[in-house]
Amino acid sequence: MAIATLKYPEFSGSHGEDGFTPAPSTHVGVAIAIRGGGLVAPAIHDTAHLSLDEVMTALRDLVARVRAGRFRSSEIADPTITVSSLGDRGVEALYGVIYPPQVAIVGFGKAAERPWVVDGVVVPRALVTATLAADHRVSDGHRGALFLSKIGSLMQDPEAL
Asked: Model pTM greater than 0.90?
C-alpha cells in the first residue's frame, strides 16, 4: 500500500483549512486493537522505503509495544494513511472510516478460497478483498480504483517488494 502511494500521492497526506497537503513520506498507520478495549493506529515511518522484512519487523514491534502500552506519541500523531484488517477475526471485507486529517484508509479482509479463472480453467485461489475509503475533496473513484489496482498488482509479486 505504501509503495502504491508513491504513484498515487493523493491518498497519503492530510486535509486541513488550507486544503490537501501531500505527505513528503508515507507513514502507514496500522489499526491495532488494545487489550481491554479500544483501538489506536500508530505509524510505521517511511514505510514505502522499507523492505517487506523490515515492515514485518516494525509491525511486530509496534503491535507488541501497543499491547504493552509503550508506543510513542509521534507514532500516533503522524500517520499519513491508515491500513486496517480484521482478517484474523474471520472478516472477509472491511469498510474503514477515515481518521481526519488523513484522507484515506485501506481495509483488508481474510484470505478466502474462491473459484478463479486461470487460462480458461476455473481453479481455487486464495483471494483477499481490499477496500478504500477516500476523501473526495482530494481524490475520486477513478483514482481510487487505480490505487487499489496498483496495490493488487504489487501483492501478486511479493518477492519484488
From this structure: yes
